[in-house]
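Friendly challenge for the regulars: who can give me the structure tokens for this chain first? No prize, just bragging rights.
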Amino acid sequence: MEVHARTGFLSEFTHASGGESRMDDAELSLAAVLVAEATNVGYKPVARPRHWALNRARLSHVEQNYLRAETLRAANARLIDVQADIPLAQLWGGGMVASVDGMRFVVPTQTVYAGHNPRYFGRKRGATWLNAINDQVAGIGATVVPGTQRDSLYQLDVLLNPYHGRRPELVTSDTAGYSDMVFGLYRICGMAYAPRLANLADTRFWRIDPAADYGPANDLARHRIRLGRISPYWPEMLRIAGSLVTGTVRAYDLIRALGRDGNPTPLGQAFAEYGRIAKTQHLLAVADPDDDTYQHSLNAQLNTTESRHRLARKLCFGHRGELRQSYQEGMEDQLGALGLVLNAVVLWNTTYLGAAVEQLRAQGYPVADADAARLSPLIDTHLNVHGAYTFFLPQLAGLRPLREPDRAERDEK
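First reply, four minutes later:
Bragging rights claimed.
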């Protein structure tokens, strides 16, 4: 409710009929439904029979008529906009770098939208919540994948249709989403793809000109990119890019059609050859012996995704964190509520972390931007401001000067 007071994001939930809501305290009912769905506890803990805005019938009506994909998308967009305007979030990044990863959920009910995978679900079935997070720690898109199919079949759809209008320029993921064809599809759609590769030593580097002299790197790139496989299909590749960006064609269907179960079509081979250019540039940046900034930034973004998933596990604690929905739409609505609540938590934490930093600076403490940038909004216990200012004397009247503790005091601490 406090986040709504700051952003008004609950006003984006409109009635399915298209008319204006005539309910009093509609925001309170919406907040209760979002909490019930995100925490996976159901209505019982949040319902109040004697409170007309929180009785079970009212909450059920709100869920059926207000909670849907388009309203969740609009509410998320408002939170993402507000998050981007916070000075502390701007220290983390400009919102143009994103990572995509999947979070696994056990689905104990009988449904065709869950699949087997002993590694993640044991003897049960499950589904994957594939979501994208930008470098300002805001969730910008998500989808539900039956079972544990390859992320590369779905992640491009998530990034081409984000909650927010701005698409990222650089996208990173783990090894599961990697293929030469995916590199080409990202590049032609205007995004740089930078996955974390597990076996870098066994990865091929490519060159266009076999006679080019790359000095010490000559022996590194022994494989040649055949431009003759790209140029005949270039007009068709551009049309496909336009269809992907405008949402006319799903990347999931396109990759499956171009791949043919591991045997690419000539058009798929053209995308793979084109993607090897971007792939080699990515590998050279990762393997740069003089500058590891690129690799560290990718790892930091992927660590942010993992931290967000840990927070999501703590929020979605009811029913042992299992999804009890039988239909994909129900799964998407529940996990969409979880993503929205996560964005609200991140915004709340970012707001107060930023306020703490500004208060320290107002009191004369030298809080550097580099130190503030290490703070994380993905916390669930307390605000942990790293660093100590024991030897700094604030130039404020009425404050006793700080002295260096002697050896005995340090040992006692």
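The first helix runs from residue 2 to 7. Residues 310 and 378 are 9 Å apart (CA to CA). Your move, everyone else.
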